[in-house]
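cron nightly-structures :: item 1 of 1
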Amino acid sequence: MTTEKISIPQRILKIGIISWIIVLLIWGLASLSYDEIFLPSPGETASALKALIDEGKLWEDIVASVARVLQGWIIAIVFAVPLGLIVGHFKIARWLVEPILSLFRFVPAIALTSLFLMWFGVEDESKIALIIYAAFFPIFVNTIAGVVSTDSSLVEAAGCMGASKIRVFFTVVVPSAVPNIFTGIRLGLGSAIICVVAAEMLVGNNGLGYLIQSSRMYYKTSWAFAGIVTLALIGFVADRLLQHLGIVFLKHYGVRKA
C-alpha cells in the first residue's frame, strides 16, 4: 500500500499558515483606514491581549467560560447519547419523539434566555442550562442518524448467528453509530461555545462574552477583538484536540480525520 507524499508547500497550506497570514494582512490593511475605536489593528489587539493577561482579567474570563462550557457540554453528552441510541433503535420511540424533536431543535437557545433566567436565576445555573439545550440537539440528532444508518445486513447476520437483540444492539448498532456520535459531540462543543458567549453577553459579570460586551461601555474595541481572538483560539484548539483524541481512541470504530 502506497502513501501519497506531501510536498513542503502543500504541508504549509495544510497547516493553514498561509491562510492566517492572508487574514492578518487584510485585517491590518483595513485597520489603516479607521481608528482604534472602530477597527483596532492586529498589533493593537495583541497589546490589548497582553494588558488583559498582565492584569489577570483574561485568565479569569477564560476559566469562567471554559468551566461553563465543559459542564453543559458533558451533561448534554450524558443525556443525548443514550437517548439518541434508544430513539434511533426503537421505531415506536422515534415516532413519538420525532415531532417534538422537529419542533424544538429549530428554537435557538438564545430565544429561551429570559425563560431560563426566570426558572434558574441569574447565576451559572441558567447559563449551563442554556448550554445543555444548545449542545443537546446536535449530539442527539447525529446519534439517531448513526443508529438509523446501521447496515441492516450486519444486524441480520448477527441475528442469524444466534446473537440476542441486546447483544446485536451493543456489538453492531452502537459501534456502527460511533462516527456519527463523535461528529455530534464535536458539533455540540461548537454550539456550547457559541451559546456561552451569548449568555454571558446578555447576563453575567465574568467570562469572555462579558468581556466582549463590557468593552463597549469603555470604548475599548481592542478588548472586544482580544476576547474574540481568544474565543476563536479556544474553539480551534478544543476541536483539534477532540478530533485527535477521537482518531487515537476511536479509530477502530471508523473515526477518521476530516
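cron nightly-structures :: done
The CA atoms of residues 179 and 255 lie 5 Å apart.
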